[in-house]
User: Fold this.
Amino acid sequence: MKSNEFLHSRLDAQTVDESAVTIRSDELVAIPDCGHWRPLNGLQKMMLRWESFHPLNAAHLLTLAGQPDVASVRSAIHSAVQWFLPGPVEFSGDGCSFRCLSEQSPQSYIQLDFHTSDQQPPEQFTNALLQTELNRRFPEESSSPFRFHIVTTGANRWYLLIIYRHVIQDSRATTALARCILRHLRGAVPTDAAPPGFARELSTLIPNFDRDGSMGKTLPRVLREICCGCISWRAPRCFAKPDVLVPDTDSELLPLSDVRLTARDFGVTVHDLLLSATHEAIEETVCGSGWRRRIGLYTPVDLRHETIPPVPEASGQILGGYTLRPRRRRGQSFADFVRQMAAETQQIKRSGVYRFYERHLEFMSNIWDCLPRWGNRIAGPGLVPVSALVSNVNLNTFLCDELSSGQLQRYSRYTGTGIMTSMMLGLTTCGNTLEVSSTHHSVLFSHEQAAAIRQRVRYRLLGGRST
Assistant:
């Protein structure tokens, strides 16, 4: 299996010779024996703890051509989930490890629901379903980290909604599962591929991964991160209504060629352009133009570029990330700010500072366990203080067959942010278009504010150059 089937999540538009690297079957991670406890990494531990206050789910919404055969869809989902995950998952009492239970029939632990939306527009129906599912907890006891919904319409189109528990799955592994489902539906499942199983520890995959730094080095860096976060802007609670995550489904699709042209004009990557546009949109829409407080943007980093062979498409992998907190000078042009952001990003990549993120969160989970619940409610968000989560994924290589065959028409992603941050903004490349999506807390942003942020980001991605 060639590595271009793995390198689908890209931070930039750099060209990589993906055909030059292959993965042997013995280099993949076999699914461990059922009942074997596996340690959670730092980010997984913190996400499990954040769940005590708010569900931390995420969703992928696929728009597909044709009308599904119910039996075929059910069979494809059951087969794909069993290939990735042989049984339900449970967590240890101390919240530091998890295991996959004994193999069971998929019907006993996989939730799959079918819906028809003939009575209302499909976009309205899927939006309501998305909001419900992002705010609905997975069971405390052992369960599958997935829920599935099939939505059919009067037109020759149907939707596959995959809800996943972020503690166990990341976006990459969920897209791999979605691709496996679509392959089953087309009868194109490879027979020689080994089950992906669970990802190994990042420290065993990434050269010079600094996970076991001494406390003398770790503590100052953690304190520096907290201090920097304390001066970062966070959305204040502005509304008294119940706190729910609100996804948007009104995003227009942007031409991929136009966005790439804009990035080339600025001399940066699409990801740097997205980060800069998001920073500006938050600053101008909700942060205000008075005291220019720092806006912390957390973004995943593509660690696969550091590994030969790449990290397999496995369950349980949560990759690293880094936080940018640039200060835009008063009167600074957007072009200069984009170049400033790009320079800071490249410095972080060269130095490998982002490898510290897992160590940071490992430390934070220990602080969390020492505090009472009321203390975590107050101090919890400050343990990883960022203003927004920014995600950028290019699916064109990974889902090439599904796109070229016309089976896949659109792919949308929505991520719950828990108490970590106020909103998520994602850019998803699928075919010759890009989609800007967002998820926000209802008590922190109004619908109008969230829409204004997305509109400003789209404006900059398409080449808007007003200062």
Summary: The chain is about 35% helix and 20% strand. Confidence is low (pLDDT under 50) at residues 1-32. The longest strand covers residues 57-65.
